[in-house]
Each structure stands twice: as C-alpha cells, then as structure tokens.
Design a protein that fits this description.
Helix content: 25-40%
CATH superfamily of the largest domain: Dihydrodipicolinate Reductase, domain 2
Low-confidence stretches: 1-26
Strand order of the largest sheet: 12-11-7-10-9-8-13
Number of domains: 2
CATH architecture of the largest domain: 2-Layer Sandwich
Distance between the termini: 78 Å
Amino acid sequence: MVARHFQFMSALIMAVLAMLSPRLVMADNLRIGIIGLDSSHCEQFTLRLNDPANPSHIPGARVVAAYAGGSPDLPESADRVAGFTATLKDKYGVQILSSITEVCAAVDAIMILSVDGRPHLEQVREVLLCQKPFFLDKPVAASLKEAVEIYKLAEAAKVPMFSASSMRWYPGVIEVATAEDTPALTAIAYGPAPILPHHPDLFFYGIHSVEALFTVMGTGCQEVVRTTSENASVVTGVWNGNRLGTLHAIHGLPMGSPNYKITRFGVKGVVEQKNQGDYTPMLREIIKFFQTGQPPVTPQQTLEIYAFMEAAQQSKRQEGKPVSLREVLRKAGAPEAWLPPVPSVDPSKS
C-alpha cells in the first residue's frame, strides 16, 4: 500500500513538473519530427535513430513524423524531396504530414533539416509556436541578418535551439582542437565550397570547413580579408592575440566531396587531421540537447561563424579589404552580448 502510494505521488510530481517545464522532462524515447526532406541528413539521421540494428544506432529517440517541404527553384532541393520522402515513409515508418503545425503537435522535439537556408526563418517562426526545442541544420539562414533574427526570436520565446556542422564533432577535428592546452597559434582549413544561388557563397557548403576552423581556433575572430579566384577563395581571419586562421574554400569541388582537412600550428608543433567522421557524434549531441534543454553551442559561437562568412563576402566585394566581424554583426542586428570582444590594444604600439 505504501509502495503504491509512493509510486502514485512520484508519478504525480513528474506530471506536474512536465507541465511546468515540458522541455526538460521528457519520455525516455523521444518522438522526433523532421521539417524538410530534401537533404541526405533526413535519411541518415532517421537511419541512426529508427534502426536498432544499425551499428551507429543512437537510443533514446525515434523519428515519427515529418513535413516534406522543398524549394522548387533550387535543384539541390527539388530533385531530392520525393526520394527521401518515400524512404522515410516506406522504410522507416515515418508519418508524412501536410504542415509544420501538425508535425509539431505530434512530437517532443524538432529537427529543421531543409537544405535551403531561405525558408528557415519562417519555418522557425512556426516551430516556436509549439514551445518545443529544435535543432536547425546548416545553413542557419541565407543571410546573416536572418540568422541573427532566428536566434533573437528563439531567445525571446525562451525555446532552446542550436545549429552546427557535423564537422565540429568529427574525431579527427577534435583531435586537432585538443592537441595542446594552449590556443592554436594559427590553423589552416580547406574543403569544398561549391557556389549555389540564393546564398552567400560560403554559407551553403563552406560552412563545414569554417566550423572546423572555429572548433580549433575558438571564438574571438576580429576581422577577415579574402582573396578570390574562379576556383577558390582564401579567407584569413585575425583572432585575439594576433593569431591567424585561414580557410581555403575550393569552389571547384562538388557537394559530397570528402576532401576536408585542418592543420593546427601550436607551441609544441604541428598537428594534422588524420581522419574524417560522420553524422553520429553530432546526432548524439542533438539527442542529448533534446533530453536536457542545454545546447552544446551558444548563439554567440554560431553567429561569429556566420559573421566570418559574411565578412568574407563583403571583403570579396571590396576587393580584399579587411572587414570587422563586430561591425557586420552589429549591422545585422546582433545584441552586444553576441558580438566578439573589442580588440585589445597593445600599449607598446599606442
């Protein structure tokens, strides 16, 4: 009798806590909804969550509902929606619904995976209405201004969110980033950055190599300069402490190219990335985030990465002039708390 009473009271307390804080008290097996079935991510994420026999299976969550979406004027989206929709429905038993609102009502958490950054702002507006945590796939948006607006809306609504490239958790990148206790003196990252319409030319795919660069260098980039040719761009950022991080964005390499690498130059020596990775480590972080409500990457960290790419775009238009990250973020509407620190002044040079 006492045991039953204790179980009843425990269940009652958990129910009350769930009503008071629905984002932090969830079922062990989370119901996940996907917005946007035009990226390989929707298939790869669902495979890892819904197939217990898969070697990369991640327990604790299952994709149960999705909204197809798609961008008719972007072949990289339009040509893939039907195939991925059929796969999720027929192979993994995902219910395909006709609106974002329906998906949000049927799940505990949401992954916005639309490959095109342009619809993300409006998709986020709809998702925020349900007050459930969400992961926003890259690119956050098709402009820095819209990326800032998304984070401001989420903060105002008090809804946890984050966005990141899977390369942030590649074992090879982590090995380089943690090679020494002291910050990297400089680092060089390279990778594919095919140019697509409707996006700043690094946002769509260059984001992967840029995020690897920031994973190794950390935050605190102050300004960038860019040199561009038809086939490649070289973007050099100046970090606090006069440290340099350089991106080689190779425009001639296609989407899906495995040619990524980052090299770190430190006090003790040089460390090169030895291996790649896949979506599994990032997806583990996403599920952990859904379970705890604690994002692994802050708005400031992510927006500095997009400010780096936007500043590179502006430097390109200005024929290689240095562009300040603080200024591009301020013009995009970012609050002071999300801006990189003011560059320190060396007294010996004043």
